[in-house]
Amino acid sequence: MAESGIRQIVVGVDGSEESITAARWAVDEARLRDRPVQLIHAYNWPVPMVPMAPPPANWTEESLRQAAEALVNDALGKVRTDGVQVSGGVRAGPAPYILIDTSRQAELLVVGHRGRGGFAKLLLGSVAASVAAHAECPVAVVRPYTGQPRPSGPVLVGADGSAASGKAVEFAFAEAARRGVPLAVLRAWRPPMEYPPVQLREGELGEGGPRPPGQPDPASVEAAEAQRLQDWVRPWQEKHPGVDVRWLLSVDRPAAALVEAAGEAALVVVGSRGHGGFTGLLLGSVSQQLINHAPCPVVVVR
Are 290 and 272 in contact (CB under 8 A)? Predict the structure, then answer.
């Protein structure tokens, strides 16, 4: 950590283009927060191509460290550091363990969506999945942008009333205030009985559609959900009166609604787990699907 005691933004780098993209995003975030950045590379003994074969003679602790330091120096050279203190460091050990350990004193941990060494068909890299599930600070997972980055787009947060969702909303309000952009708060739910879906929309409540006898009135249900959402978010809204809040309501699966709404967002914030998950899972299905499919960076808050 920084000698001054200021918490840093820590970025895991491994030489991949994904990790360089993550480092660049982290430096931009550090400018907003007035925080230093540290690029960390964790190096480990390579696995021999032949099982039980002795390692090549040129594989020494010193040679591995030198290669790791060269990789970090290369990453430092690819990141614009105007106005931001950026340093690099290397540590021996498995990348997930090193980054999780570093997260204990970090303000934010940033990783690429996938790094080197994974299987091409896997959507989420093992390092990103591990740190998002276990880190002790918020984790930003930076995916390759599917379009032009939208730094002036709104911050989008999913809200379901859970404790993890509350931490995500708190983080999202601060982030929107820091960036000077609107905050879009999305509430998605599945009705207890099927009725014609209400389209995702901002602010106004619609009329819904015809319903079979005995089924709930979609407009009444949506109005109740809207009021419940606004009442729940009000404490954070009062702390950030300058943030323009936009309410998004959707009768859909939360992950699908968030991925759809993320198309216009600069950043998506989500709790590590919400309502309805299995208590033994550290990273909920909504978080995983957002990390895999959102077209912008995703912050997972524990």
Answer: no
Could you name the CATH architecture of 9-142? 3-Layer(aba) Sandwich (3.40)
* Whether the Cβ atoms of residue 258 and residue 158 lie closer than 8 Å to each other: yes
Q: pLDDT tens for residues 188-237?
A: 877 655 545 545 455 544 444 555 555 667 778 788 888 999 999 999 99
Q: How far, in Å, CA of 15 to CA of 116, rounded? A: 8
**What is the amino acid identity at position 82?**
D
Q: Domain coordinates of the chain in residue numbers?
A: 9-142, 155-296
Is the Cβ–Cβ distance between 1 and 107 less than 8 Å?
Answer: no
Topology (CATH level 3) of domain 155-296: Rossmann fold (3.40.50)
Can you give the pTM of this predicted structure? 0.82
60, 46 contact by CB (below 8 A): no
**Residue 115 CB neighbour total at 10 angstroms:** 21
